[in-house]
Structures are given as structure tokens and as C-alpha cells.
Amino acid sequence: MTNAAIAGTELSLELSRRFDAPPGRVFDAWITKSWCEWLGPAVARCELVAMDPRVGGTYHLRMHMPDRVVEITGEYREIKRPERLVIRWIGDSTRFDTTITVAFKRDGAGTLMTLRQEGFKDQGVRDGFAQGWSAPGNSFDKLAQLLAR
């Protein structure tokens, strides 16, 4: 499910996906070294440069795209395992600076994960993120494959 909403002059994105794994396992995929195994579109390779998953801690990713390298940095703002994760997501210094809130809710033997990303100033960037997260073969599909191992 994909919903795009306008809040004032900022654009946001909300996506939900069910995974066949318990909430703790899905949550951990976001705050362990396996993050780069599933993060990003199918055409990209993610490189984990640094990660300090604690409130106030930071991370640094390098997303190797076919035509460029995107530097992504951010800060862990809230970590409530296995229910909620809030991170600041900054790319290429000024192109985007968003907040991502991920909620993990038990759904039978699996997890319903809802991602909300806020603070987009450009609809094209927001729509690109929607594709990167949820289009076939991209982040959420790769996360499902990781969790199936």
C-alpha cells in the first residue's frame, strides 16, 4: 500500500508491507550490518561506512548507483525495539533531508511494517523514494528475501 500526502508545503510518503518474520527480526534488519544487504533499488549497491545504532548515534551509507554515488548520513532519533524506529535521513548534503519513522506491528506470525518518510520538498524526489522502497525488486522485496533466509 502506498499513500502520498501533502502536509503544508512538505510532501510525505507512507508505505506498508507485511513480512513473514517476527517484529524483532524485521526491526533488527534496520539497525544491524545487514541493513545494506537489502537497502536501495535493485540497480544500486549499498556500502555501510559507519553505524552507531543508539539514540543520538549516527550512520553513513554510500549508495552506488549506475550513474553516481549518493552519500547518505543520518541520526538515530528514537529506538524502541521492536516497535518503532525514527531516523533522520540526509542525502548528498542538500538534495533531501527527511525523517523516517518505521512502525513494526505483530501480524499473526509475521510483521506489518509501516514506513513514513516526511520532509520532502520535491514531489519527484518523494516519488523516487516510493519506487526505491516498494517497486518490484527494490528495498522491501530485498528485505523479504533476507528475512526468508
Q: Report the biggest beta sheet as strand number plus sense, adding barrel if it closes.
A: 8 strands, antiparallel
* Top CATH class: Alpha Beta
* Structural class by helix and strand composition: alpha+beta
Low-pLDDT runs of 5+ residues are: 1-8
- The secondary-structure element order is EEHHEEEEEEHH
The name of the CATH superfamily reads: START domain
Q: Beta-strand percentage? A: over 45%
The radius of gyration over CA amounts to 14 Å
Helix count, DSSP H or I runs of 4 or more residues: 4
What is the residue-averaged pLDDT? 92
Question: What is the fold named in CATH at topology level?
Answer: Alpha-D-Glucose-1,6-Bisphosphate, Chain A, domain 4
The number of distinct structural domains comes to: 1
- Categorize the overall geometry: globular
Q: Which strand order spans the largest sheet, edge to edge or round the barrel?
A: 1-2-8-7-6-5-4-3
Secondary structure: number of strands: 8
From the N-terminal CA to the C-terminal CA, the straight-line distance is 24 Å
How much helix is in the residues? 10-25%
CATH architecture: 2-Layer Sandwich
Give the SSE map.
Layout: E1 2-7, E2 10-19, H1 23-31, H2 35-38, E3 45-51, E4 58-64, E5 69-80, E6 84-91, E7 96-107, E8 110-120, H3 123-134, H4 139-148
Antiparallel strand pairs: 1-2, 2-8, 3-4, 4-5, 5-6, 6-7, 7-8
Q: Can you walk through the features of this model?
A:
With 149 residues, the chain is of the alpha+beta class. The chain has one domain (2-148): START domain (Alpha-D-Glucose-1,6-Bisphosphate, Chain A, domain 4, 2-Layer Sandwich), CATH 3.30.530.20. The chain has 4 helices and 8 strands; from the N terminus they run ββααββββββαα. The chain has helices at residues 23-31, 35-38, 123-134, 139-148; strands at residues 2-7, 10-19, 45-51, 58-64, 69-80, 84-91, 96-107, 110-120. It is globular, with a radius of gyration of 14 Å.
